[in-house]
């Protein structure tokens, strides 16, 4: 390459001298012909020039050189070459970017390929060996308290349920929450198995043959299940009853509390003492006589009676379910308790029936027993026949209606009958007491009404009131409370504002729909007005409003019919459901009633006093003008429309009242 030189520089110029600020222009040459072709690029750095004509060589020139070249070249050619040069640079940059993207894509494909291989091997491994971590997460999730309607009722909010879930995680691994889905399903199967055991075990012990090997699978399954239940109880949280109900989740506390309470009973009722005794005795008594072997087998059956202690577990689990479902199904739970009492009576009757046959069987059916007299001990008698006669005899004893087939003849029958009669009497008393308590608790309002009515009757008798007045008072209580008594004011006061307003609006929804006084008013004003209404009941022919008295209330008719009478103007008119009267008393002070209102039937009214009305108007001042307009229109137009034939004097009353209302409006405007 030929040497480069600076164009326009002086020979003696020092290298350290500052160089003038000259725009830098880059020239590139192409020799497609004898005439050199230039492309120009301007830069701000030092400018150097090269004179060779080889293609694609960069020539760096200063401003004077560029000016000279520009003067000797076609401007359009320079512009086209410049654009071509820029396009080449852009194409090169795009190519570099494309190469970088291709390189990166190849790396990603390589990585994805390696992951696919790893996933394929993992899938094959999972096919042979399931994911233990996923299985564990599913099991531990079922052991935690779920987010459902029942848990929200128990803990009050989603935040409290989440905090309980976090507390369970901190307690340790494999801790089961007592309200978890796992415990619910486990207890469901346990209750079913307990029910089957409670029914079948007495039958197997009492009526089955001495060789009960056919029931060994059932006993093995039951014992294994209940032993597993004991192990699970050591890892299940315990609910502590009290005002602040708490769930103990600490493993040490759970273990200590379970060992001190139900562990002993659960272990004794679950451990197969009879099977162990049979196995040990069978290995050492091969040469024993048949009579002694039979006695040993019967002793093993006596040990099997310890399994009946599982009844305590059944009662305990049923109580836990009652406490859980009491939050949501209180009414159904009351019937469930009665059903439980009936089932308890049937269980006791079942146990007594098995006892009737089991005691003579253990004594080898002595003489003067009802089993031998009935020949039920013979081998040709079926188990169903023995059980039926036994249950019939025990039921007769428990209900104290007889002694069954035969009265007790021997001492054995006497004691068995005595036990049946005592257990039946206690069970019957327990059933009557609990059933009466449940029925009374299910209708507390009716019981309160009866107690109140008895006080009223004693008061009327003490005061020696006339019979006609007593009849009217009794009639009033019957129609006012309708057999149920509530402290409605206290109940509504205990509710929050939103619930109280919703209850009041529901109770008065028919009234609001029927009365234009409420339909044409603001909803917030209507809600405030409804909260001030008082429910009143009037008997037929009872005076509600007396003519000439000062008006302090207006009335809304919810149900019934009233008659408006005026002795001065000799008019009569009837109003029924949805109508109202006495509204002028709310807008005009010291206004005398211009007519009497008498209940034609039993009337259920809502009254609104002047004081309550004015209290509401303080919060809603714009409603006063609207109400005055509605009342004035009612006075002028309403009575004429409702007047009966021949009552032409009713217009005089309306005009007089309307004039009083106009005077009141004028005075109010002046104030």
UniProtKB/TrEMBL annotation:
Q: What are this entry's molecular-function GO terms? A: cAMP binding; sodium channel activity; voltage-gated potassium channel activity
* Keyword Cytoplasm annotated: no
Where in this protein does the record put region Disordered?
Answer: 1-22, 632-671
Query: Can you state which reaction this protein catalyses?
Result: Na(+)(in) = Na(+)(out)
Where is the sequence biased in composition, kind Basic and acidic residues?
Answer: 12-22, 634-643
InterPro entries per the UniProt record, alphabetical:
cNMP-bd_CS (IPR018488), cNMP-bd_dom (IPR000595), cNMP-bd_dom_sf (IPR018490), Ion_trans_dom (IPR005821), Ion_trans_N (IPR013621), K/Na_HCN_channel (IPR051413), K_chnl_volt-dep_EAG/ELK/ERG (IPR003938), RmlC-like_jellyroll (IPR014710)
* UniProt gene name: HCNa
Can you tell me where the transmembrane regions are?
184-208, 291-309, 338-359, 415-439
**The protein, known as:** Hyperpolarization-activated cyclic nucleotide channel
A GO-annotated cellular component? plasma membrane
Membrane topology of this protein:
Multi-pass membrane protein
The protein's location, in the record's own words, is:
Cell membrane
Which protein family is named in the record? Belongs to the potassium channel HCN family.
Q: Which domain of life is it from?
A: Eukaryota
* Keywords linked to the UniProt accession: cAMP, cAMP-binding, Cell membrane, Ion channel, Ion transport, Ligand-gated ion channel, Membrane, Nucleotide-binding, Sodium, Sodium channel, Sodium transport, Transmembrane, Transmembrane helix, Transport
The Cyclic nucleotide-binding domain covers which part of the protein?
517-617
């Amino acid at each position: 390459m030929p040497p480069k030189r600076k164009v326009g520089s002086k020979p003696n110029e020092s290298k350290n001298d500052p160089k003038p600020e000259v725009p830098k222009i880059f020239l590139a040459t192409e020799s497609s012909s004898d005439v050199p072709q230039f492309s120009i690029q301007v830069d701000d750095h030092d400018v150097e020039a090269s004179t060779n004509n080889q293609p694609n060589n960069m020539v760096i020139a200063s401003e004077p050189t560029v000016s000279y070249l520009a003067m000797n070249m076609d401007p359009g050619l320079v512009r086209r070459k410049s654009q071509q040069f820029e396009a080449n640079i852009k194409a090169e940059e795009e190519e570099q970017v494309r190469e970088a993207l291709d390189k990166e894509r190849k790396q990603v494909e390589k990585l994805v390929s390696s992951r696919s291989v790893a996933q394929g091997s993992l899938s094959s491994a999972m096919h042979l060996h399931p994911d233990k971590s996923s299985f564990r997460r599913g099991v531990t999730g079922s052991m935690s308290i779920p987010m459902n309607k029942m848990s929200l009722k128990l803990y009050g909010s989603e935040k409290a349920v989440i905090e309980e879930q976090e507390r369970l995680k901190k307690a340790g691994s494999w801790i089961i929450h007592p309200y978890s889905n796992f415990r619910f399903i486990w207890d469901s199967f346990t209750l079913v198995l307990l029910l089957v055991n409670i029914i079948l075990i007495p039958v197997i012990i009492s009526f089955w043959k001495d060789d009960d090997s056919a029931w060994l699978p059932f006993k093995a399954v039951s014992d294994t299940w209940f032993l597993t239940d004991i192990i699970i109880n050591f890892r299940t949280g315990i609910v502590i009853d009290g005002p602040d109900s708490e769930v103990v989740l600490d493993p040490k506390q759970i273990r200590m509390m379970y060992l001190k309470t139900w562990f002993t009973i659960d272990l004794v009722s679950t451990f197969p003492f009879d099977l162990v005794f049979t196995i040990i005795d069978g290995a050492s008594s091969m040469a024993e006589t048949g009579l002694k072997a039979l006695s040993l087998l019967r002793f093993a059956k006596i040990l099997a009676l310890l399994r009946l202690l599982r009844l305590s577990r059944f009662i305990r689990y049923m109580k836990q379910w009652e406490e859980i479902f009491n939050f949501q199904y209180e009414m159904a739970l009351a019937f469930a308790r009665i059903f439980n009492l009936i089932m308890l009576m049937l269980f006791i009757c079942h146990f007594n029936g098995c006892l009737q046959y089991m005691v003579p069987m253990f004594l080898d059916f002595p003489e003067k027993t009802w089993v031998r007299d009935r020949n039920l001990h013979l081998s040709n008698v079926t188990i169903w026949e023995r059980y039926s006669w036994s249950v019939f005899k025990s039921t007769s004893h428990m209900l104290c209606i007889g002694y069954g087939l035969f009265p007790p003849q021997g001492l054995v029958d006497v004691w068995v009958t005595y036990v049946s009669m005592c257990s039946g009497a206690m069970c019957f008393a327990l059933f009557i007491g609990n059933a009466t308590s449940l029925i009374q608790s299910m209708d507390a309002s009716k019981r309160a009404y009866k107690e109140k009515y008895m006080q009223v009757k004693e008061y009327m008798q003490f005061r020696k009131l006339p019979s006609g007045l007593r009849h009217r008072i009794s009639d009033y209580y019957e129609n006012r409370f309708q057999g149920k008594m509530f402290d409605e004011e206290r109940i509504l006061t205990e509710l929050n504002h939103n619930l109280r307003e919703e209850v009041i609006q529901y109770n008065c929804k028919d009234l609001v729909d029927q009365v234009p006084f409420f339909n044409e008013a603001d909803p917030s004003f209507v809600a405030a007005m409804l909260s001030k209404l008082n429910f009143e009941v009037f008997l037929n022919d009872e005076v509600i409003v007396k003519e000439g008295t000062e008006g302090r209330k207006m009335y809304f008719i919810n149900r019934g019919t009233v008659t408006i009478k005026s002795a001065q103007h000799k008019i009569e008119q009837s109003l029924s459901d949805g109508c109202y009267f006495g509204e002028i008393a709310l807008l005009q002070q010291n206004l005398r009633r211009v007519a009497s209102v008498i209940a034609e039937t039993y009337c259920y009214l809502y009254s609104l006093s002047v004081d309550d009305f004015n209290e509401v108007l303080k919060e809603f001042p714009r409603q006063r003008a609207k109400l005055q307009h509605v009342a004035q229109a009612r006075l002028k137009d309403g009575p004429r429309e409702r007047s009966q034939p021949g009552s032409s004097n009713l217009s005089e009353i309306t005009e007089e009242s309307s004039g009083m209302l106009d005077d009141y409006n004028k005075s109010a405007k002046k104030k």
